[in-house]
Write a structure and sequence with these properties.
344 residues, alpha/beta, Rossmann fold, six-stranded mixed beta sheet, two-stranded antiparallel ribbon, 11 helices, lipid metabolism, SGNH_plant_lipase-like
């Protein structure tokens, strides 16, 4: 089953290396735990969530970045990664980062991919069937909140609307993106919302907190993430009703991450607040660079850098996506979706 990946830096496998942006993962120690030990363009010490899902699908390798010259020939059969670090649902999200690949361009790239695929598989009909059979995976919303509405020290968006109004707008725009993916052939879409945003090292460095409990992380942005995830589940349910089929599955990353951060020991983590790589309070200031502080016990950290999970943390997220109950992934988990695909 091919994998089509869309969204932000949680799942970007290297597209930002090919564009003019300040948000890149092209220097050490990014990729320190990858097979080569070198940066791969992923915002991780090793594999990201898209890579892990590609392994679940038993693909020979993780889909290549769409902008990579390596995406050709047989590799097109595995799918493609269109994601770009820093993007959001709103097109004004990430404007401070330069020429990241915003969602309209990611979707246009899917159309170009289908043309390339048709040349490999023998025609448009065969390419359409492959896209129909793919798993689509999309991660959006984090940068709309962290890098837009709640951006420090100033947010134009916060001056224009309330948090609730902004989330209503985001969900409305997200629904348009999800509908468009189905128009272009998607039949199985895994949708991932933002996590415990107030507990990100970058947010803790800015706003601090009074204890180690997840509920004491920046309450306003936490509430916004919780509301976003709740509305995302609702809109995917509505879209499924419109289609008469469970095409969309929504994973509530806020609830998934809550467990790691409130009870890290149960998941084998010893550090759920400080980033492994960074500087300043909570290692949450700026980006991870060769000059940053770097932990040695990376499997024990929830966060790799000020914004992103470690490979080990991504594995824990994946486990819930695969087997989680309906209150965190709805209307079914990924294993159930895969079983349904096998039966049809």
């Amino acid at each position: 089953m091919p994998l089509m990946v869309f969204g932000d830096s949680l799942v970007d496998s290297g597209n930002n290396n090919y564009v003019d942006t300040t948000l890149k993962a092209d220097l050490p120690p990014y990729g320190i735990d990858s097979p080569t030990g070198r940066p791969t363009g992923r915002f991780s010490n090793g594999r990201n969530l898209a890579d892990l899902i590609s392994e679940v699908l038993k693909l020979p390798e993780s889909p290549s970045p769409f902008l990579s010259p390596q995406l050709s020939g047989e590799r097109l059969l595995y799918g493609a990664n269109f994601a770009s670090g820093g993007v959001g649902i709103s097109n004004d999200t990430g404007i401070q980062l330069g020429n990241i690949i915003r969602m309209p361009e990611q979707i246009a790239s899917l159309e170009r991919y289908q043309t390339q695929l048709a040349a490999v598989v023998g025609g448009e009909e065969q390419a359409w069937e492959m896209v129909n059979g793919a798993l689509f995976f999309i991660s959006l919303g984090t940068w709309d909140l962290v890098g837009n509405y709640f951006s420090a020290p100033f947010s134009a968006r916060a001056g224009q609307s309330t948090v609730s109004e902004f989330i209503d707008y985001l969900i409305s725009e997200y629904a348009k993106i999800l509908r468009r993916l189905v128009e272009l052939g998607a039949r199985r879409v895994l949708v991932l919302g933002p996590g415990q945003l107030g507990c990100l090292p970058v947010e803790l460095a800015i706003r601090g907190r009074s204890s180690n409990r997840a509920t004491d992380c920046g309450s306003e942005i936490q509430t916004a993430s919780l509301l976003f995830n709740s509305q995302l589940t609702q809109i995917t349910q509505q879209l499924n009703r419109e289609l008469g089929s469970d095409v969309y599955v929504a994973a509530n990353r806020y609830m998934i991450a809550y467990s790691f951060i409130n009870n890290p020991d149960a998941y084998g983590f010893t550090e759920a607040s400080v980033a492994c790589c960074g500087q300043g309070p909570y290692n949450g200031v700026g980006q991870c660079t060769p000059a940053s502080n770097l932990c040695s016990n990376r499997d024990e950290y929830v966060y790799w850098d000020p914004y992103h999970p470690t490979e080990r943390s991504a594995e824990a997220i994946l486990e819930v996506i695969l087997t989680g109950p309906p209150d965190v992934i709805s209307p079914m988990n990924l294993n159930t979706m895969m079983e349904a695909n096998t039966e049809t």
